[in-house]
Queue: 3 jobs
Job 1
Amino acid sequence: MTAEEFEAAFAAMSGVTVAFLHRCGRYAEPCRCGGYDCQGWWMGRQWEDAIVEDHIRARTSVPPPGVA
Ligand SMILES: [Zn+2]
């Protein structure tokens, strides 16, 4: 599995796009945890709930004055 493939799978699993992950500063990084189900990559220090939080933030954030 390549980093790109991992990011695509992670994005699909999270219900977002790879572009969204990158916009949030999330990129696949080599993982050497040795877990039996480890695919050799992880998303930096980011996890799914961080993405969910971003969704919540995006939904509840107030647009700056003059916008909308
Ligand atoms: Zn791992």
Job 2
Amino acid sequence: MIFFEKVVTFLKKAILNFYLSKGVDMNIITILKADHKEVAALLKKLLKSETAQSKESIFSKIYEALNLHARFEEKVFYPAVRKTAKTKDLVLESYVEHDMIKILLADIRKMSIKDELWKAKVTVLQEIIKHHVKEEEQELFPQAKRILDKDQLKDMGEKYLRSKEGKDLK
Ligand SMILES: [Fe+2]
Ligand SMILES: [Fe+2]
């Protein structure tokens, strides 16, 4: 298992370096949208899964993906786009929605899968994320494309992918 994880990490790094070396479009908005899709699919899978083991493993993937995603948005992406009255309001709402998402994630992490509230909490988490993603994709991201130029979007994308590889955000 550990060997398998090492191989996966190695392959992920190799793929990232390949894309970076080819100058493939690393637009941060494209990458954040891909994360949104991935988490939505994992949440669906989590609600359908039947064994405790698969629930635990899917939830830990969601937990990790959301923490990385939210951390980057809060530290890098949101500060860079809160430049107008409209984006400032959207960003402030996003911070509050992230807080709600984090509270639910922490609750679910602590609770037993057998708890009768488990499914209700995961369902509400899914609903809040749906709402949050809709606001980001339909309102904030189009504004961000006006505020940031192509190079800034690409630099941010590269920075995010590197931070996913375990390198610190600066
Ligand atoms: Fe997001
Ligand atoms: Fe967000």
Job 3
Amino acid sequence: MTRLLLRWVQSLAIAAVLLNLAARAGRAADTYPASDPALPKLIEPSQVQEPDVYHARREALMKEMSEGVAVIYSEGSEDGDGFRQSSDFYFLTGVSEAGAVLVLAPKERTHREFLLLPSRDPEAERWTGERESIGVALRKKYGFEKIFRTGRLAGLVRELATRSPVLWQVSFPEAGGDKKPADLELYGKISSQLAGISTKPLPFTLARMRSKHSPDEIALIQRAIRISEEGFRVAIQEIRPGGFEGTVEAEAERVWKARGARRPAYASIVGSGPNSTILHYPKSERTMQNGELLLMDMSAEFAHYASDITRTLPVNGKFTAAQRKVYDVVRQAQQAAFEMVRPGVYFEDLDAAARKIIEAAGYGEFFIHSLGHFVGLDVHDAGAYHEPLAADMVITIEPGIYLPEQKLGVRIEDDVLVTETGAKWLSDGLPRDADEVEKWMAARSESANSRK
Ligand SMILES: [Mn+2]
């Protein structure tokens, strides 16, 4: 009898948990427009896609190589939210382990791709979690037939290079880095041991692959954007004279994490008054004053994909005439650039279209950055910036005017998908025009008041 009762109580508890989970999932789903593309199947907990997605990318890269060997190192690093894999390596493997290396050899008959992982370290693993041993399960999980330890790297590459003597640089260091890249370091050693080996660059191949997104990637970017938009909607409740920049930032970031975003896509910028004119104001520690603008450039990363949105709002809900004049010019410049977006157009053309409007309004010297950038695995994503845009690329359009003397900075930034025939706003969930922005702020105070 007691056992029966216990079972009944247990099943009730389980039902309650399930109902609660379903309700939560429902609430989260309500937040996203039904027209958004469905997310691809993600493998928890690291939020990577199925291994065949990455395998297909390696195949495409090997087709471009056609011969020789390419070595791609994991260059990921720890940040406050854990380990973040470097994007080239992640794009090709979906593997989020530190110290891993990918070797590709398209001319080989049987095994053309190799994943090398660092040796196990029981001491370190007590701190960072146990790593799997190499076996069937790991090969299946990562989709590699050949997984070795990194101790075999030099020997493997030397052996492959004797059969096809070209060593490709496919992953390029970011501008400004002065460290010799690990692949060139290894290639130098091998070239000093074997005669007739050439080292060649394969510039832009990986960048081009990364900048043209698959439908799954677009769905992931769209979700990152929706999470960011929700963060804005919650965070603006905290905008008021006497409010704190840091509260606005904290509210947005809280929403992102609650929605499954692992980390900010970049350090959030929340600057009021004079801080709105500092492009990358990092501190968010000022008290907002009546009559100022608040510039918020803050967005989430979801499943390794970035989003990048900026809104500039009046702290008291109403633009002054002077603020509105500047705001409208920035908005017009953004619209002019947006209307030009289509396959075949260059970034420079978009920049020129926006700049023309800002210059005509007399603010030319106060638009001090470029108009936009690619968005993907990184917020300032890889891509061939000097080549024409193509369908399935995602870019930002973010004109700005910064007037330090007036303590007034305006930036409006949205994420745009290049389509076959033109462009589509991906961040279409937040007001953009000055009138809409004021209505948004007014509706916010009403709902904030009615809650009291
Ligand atoms: Mn940006």
